[in-house]
Amino acid sequence: MFLTRYLEDEKRRLAPIATLSDQGHRRYAEPEIKVEYRTSFQHDRDRIIHCLAFKRMKEKTQVFAPEQSDHLRNRLSHTLEVTQLSRSVARALALNEDLVEAISLGHDLGHSPFGHSGEAVLNSILKQEIPIDNADVSAFRNAGGFKHNYQSVRIVDELEKRYRDWDGLNLTDKVREGILKHTGTKGRLYNLMRYDGLYVDGPASTPEAAIVAMTDEIAQQCHDLEDGIRLKLASITQLQDTPVFNIEPFRAVIVRGNGYDVMNDLIRTLFHVFMDDLIGNGVVHEADGRFRFSFSPELEKGFAGLREFVYTRIIFSHDVARSDYMAKRVLKDLFNAFYNNPKLLPDYVLLRVSKQSNVPHLRHLPFGEQKKTAGKLKSCDKFIRVIADYIGGMTDSYAMKEYRKINP
Questions:
Q1: Which end of the chain has less neighbouring CB within 10 Å, N or C?
Q2: Is 134 left (phi over 0), alpha (psi -120 to 50) or beta?
Q3: What span, in angstroms and rounded, lies between the C-alpha atoms of 60 and 393?
Q4: What is the mean pLDDT of the chain?
């Protein structure tokens, strides 16, 4: 009864272009629950929050290694910021808050350890641009690439094990699509992945998915700036040389100097002005089916200038370059070790190798058979994919711990 009333209320209060909560479809049929108090998108939100990949995000780097300060963003705090921004936009524009919340909470589940640099390293390994010892190059290329939005869908579709009757979380197609399309989807990186109607090459089919893509970008630029200033990689007064300084609400703060109180005011003003402008411009449903959110021309120029400043002064800084080098060294050594000696993998990962590759559990074989089977696995793309999944799911601290075990 509650759910019926809720869905009827949605039809009255949401905008005509909004996605209604009864429009999502799951991959697998589920038994009907007699007493229901959540919509399908609310179910998806709760499933994401309770999954293991969500818990691990608290120890995954956003941009800066956590030991540099207790106050830097990690992957989880970034996710919560995106969720808050997305809900604010959805509420203001009468779109589906529950859908944007679920997409936001799940959008970065597939991030590897060490931030975007870890993602790039794993992708280069799978493409064999970073070589692995004794690699079967064709097998590596058949294992697909690594990009966090694809990996996020892979996690919710296959890798999470929460149910007896199916793999994954069995999320609705609207949430899965929003997770996949919060960033670029050029090219099918996973030839081993089932897309099940997500239309990889097309735009997102809901305005809620488009909201998350936009607020993710706003959150990244603003909090990367704050973290960079906190680490003294950039200063507030340096923004006087960017288009941001030409916009009055920002100029009034920037001219006050470089104190922490000024930094707090600046970040708060950036969020407020960009969000206010975004909401004020609304959403355009274009002829190709794309939902477009945009800034006014002045704010668009200012945001582009902010992005260039963040990348030039902060993302390309010495601190980040050093972390990138460490990521490459750690992840390459881990991949190399697991590929050439599968017995270094934990039992539950070897069990997944066995199921994926149709080979006996390596540790259940006599020694001679173990060596022979391990040699055959080198030419198995599914074995390589399992290693990528395992390393990609690690937290920074766990990756370092495993690295030290193989490099004492």
A1: C
A2: left
A3: 10
A4: 92
Read off the pLDDT of residues 72-114 as tens digits, 9 standing for 90 and up: 999 999 999 999 999 999 999 999 999 999 999 999 999 999 9
Give all domains of the chain, ordered by start, each with its CATH number: 1-233+317-408 (1.10.3210.10), 234-316 (no CATH)
Reported for 310-313, long-range contacts at CB under 8 A and 24+ positions apart, including other chains, are 310/221, 310/224, 310/225, 310/228, 310/234, 313/228, 313/233, 313/234, 313/238
Residue 203 Cα distances to 150, 184, 290, angstroms: 15, 10, 5
Beta strands 291-293; 283-285: pairing state: antiparallel
CB 103, CB 86: distance < 8 Å: yes
Degrees to nearest 5, angle at CA 108 with 106 and 109? 65
H or E element, residue 292: strand 291-293
Question: Model-level pTM?
Answer: 0.95
Q: Which long-range contacts (CB under 8 A, 24 or more apart) does 257-266 make?
A: 262/236, 263/226, 263/229, 263/230, 263/236, 266/236
Q: Which H helix or E strand runs over 293?
A: strand 291-293
Tell me which of 7-16, 112-121, 255-264, 282-291 is least confident. 282-291
Question: Band of the pLDDT at 192, cuts 50, 70, 90?
Answer: very low
Angstrom distance (rounded) from CA 138 to CA 247: 53
* Chain Cα centroid distance, residue 346: 25
Measured CA to CA in angstroms, residue 292 lies from 67, 210, 281 at distances of: 38, 7, 10
Written in H, E and C, the secondary structure of 248-273 is HHHHHHHCCCCCHHHHHHHHHHHHHH
Of the two residues 64 and 347, the one the predictor is more confident about is 347
The model's pLDDT over 38-74, given as tens digits with 9 standing for 90+, comes to: 999 999 999 999 999 999 999 999 988 777 777 899 9
Please list the alpha-helical segments (H only) found in 165-247: 173-180, 207-230
Which among 119, 186, 178, 183 is positioned nearest to 147, based on CA atoms?
119
